[in-house]
Amino acid sequence: MFLFDLTITGNRFGAWRLQAILAANGLWDENAEVSKKIFIDNNLYDSSSGTMFLRLGGKNYTAMSAVGQAFGWETNGQIGAFNFVAPV
Q: Kind of pairing, strands 12-14 and 44-46?
């Protein structure tokens, strides 16, 4: 299954293992934001320092600012601690 015209906004992501966003396990490339109409912004990420933020097109991005510069994603996103309220 392939996703197109996807908007991911206003979410909270935490406790990931390798990276916050793994873009289709290598099937998305550096042009995904245009070719697949993908938009990601205004989300909150709870991460430890140095954790990989995004893996896309075989490249690793460790900082949200790098993702914003490369793709225009998460220009309003934030990194900070939060607690999930049960039930998840």
A: parallel
